[in-house]
Amino acid sequence: MNHKRAGTDSLLVTIFVFPGVRLLDVTGPIEVFTSANDFGGHYRLNMVSADGNEVTTAAGTRLGVDMAVADARETSDVLVIPGGPDWDRLIKDDALLDLVRGLDANSRCTASVCTGAFLLAAAGLLDGRSAATHWRHSRQLALRFPAVQVKPDAIFVRDGKVMTSAGVTAGIDLSLALVEEHYGAEVARAVAKDLVVFMQRPGGQSQFSVRARAAHTRQDMLRRVLDAVAEDPAANHTLSAMARRAGVSSRHVARLFCEELSMTPARYVEQVRLEAAQVMLECGDDPMAVIARRTGFGSPESLRRAFVRNLKVTPGVFRARFHTTGVADAEAPEGARVEG
């Protein structure tokens, strides 16, 4: 896509909506693109539906549209295909898929949000491409559409003219990336500040668990080892302990991890422990020493080193960003300190 700067011709963003669409899949990108117009962007938005009539979202909200798909003849610079909870029914709707194909053929960039990737896949638009979707449905996307190279951990993926994003709010991340591509980092940064979101999510924010990413292994023995780590991250999970648990040699365990998961056993254990620590930081107020002990890191310093190495932030900073919406922090006494 051509990189445009402020002052050039406007860019057309077309959003395709349908009954049962997820509301935030639609409104998230809309907010990004319209906000960009306040900071030097030039976007025009066009909401279309199959017949030009309003649609009712999965939340029960009614959305008005600008026109029917058949009347949307102008080439779109960006086509947004949102998702919906009833994606299993939608991918069997041949008429709907024909509309998606037609809109894609008349767009320079096609971007899906969340389960909108299923519509693109069912329409044949992701064949041979890499793609992302909501973590809960990533395995289904891979199983139903084997020609698609699913990236289960990605927030969003670009492959050629097609972009796909993870669950719901990841559509905002994707849209910000497009704003930066069109009008530069300064405009995208202003939009992120305006919407109070990250310009780029902190490193390491996988969209779902490391154990779920390893669910495709064909080895029952290896699955038992993986489950044991996930069930009790603080237990002894050295290579020799895993081998004893599996009843095979350490070398065999190491080989299976490499072949099935493309990582070492130690790396897998660290990722599971890191994820367990993230959950404790997000959902509770335990001291760092308690979190380190319960997740297998042993000491706060080991926990801190793992966070900095993998996520580029300290545990304390992570907790401050993701533990609450910030209301409690805003009401905290002056001089209060974030641990970590």
Automatic annotation (TrEMBL):
Keyword Cell membrane: no
Superkingdom as given in the UniProt entry: Bacteria
Entry annotated with the keyword Repeat: no
SUPFAM superfamilies named among the record's database cross-references: Class I glutamine amidotransferase-like, Homeodomain-like
Any single Pfam family the record assigns to this protein: DJ-1_PfpI
GO MF assignments: DNA-binding transcription factor activity; sequence-specific DNA binding
Keywords associated with the record: DNA-binding, Transcription, Transcription regulation
Residues annotated as domain HTH araC/xylS-type: 223-321
Family annotation (SMART domains): HTH_ARAC (SM00342)
The name this protein goes by in its record: Helix-turn-helix domain-containing protein
UniProt source species: Streptomyces fagopyri
